[in-house]
Design goal:
30% strand, 4 helices, four-stranded antiparallel β-sheet, 140 residues, signal, Lipoprotein, two-stranded antiparallel ribbon, alpha+beta
Amino acid sequence: MTVPPRLLLLLLLPFLPTCSARDSAMAEDGRERLVGLRADDLRLCAGVPNLTASSAGGDFWTYDRTPPAAGVSAPVPVIGGSLSVAAGSTCRVTFQLVDGKVTRIGYSAESALPLSQNAACAPVVQGCLRLVDQSQVTRE
């Protein structure tokens, strides 16, 4: 049995905001739970940053992420053309480190879906949160 594309789109639409909201909540959780993470542990779980900078306020490690577009891309006929439903977003996560420990995390994200402002940032902090939950790294 094949499912017509329009029906498939209608069936999947309710789940798009749910996933984005979950990822956005994960990013916000990371903003609090990763404070105190040591620099070596941050490198272990988030990888090597795209950019680094230093100032009197500490070191700043920046990660840029453009995850693959989430959602369904299926043409839906409308008067005068078609509509494609897909969600894409980008994120820049900046960790401030003082004395080798994370003190603050800032997000600069752009999202195509409402209620998902920082959803694209979740992959950057997800691995770190997992290691914290498994007690493989500690916050100081």
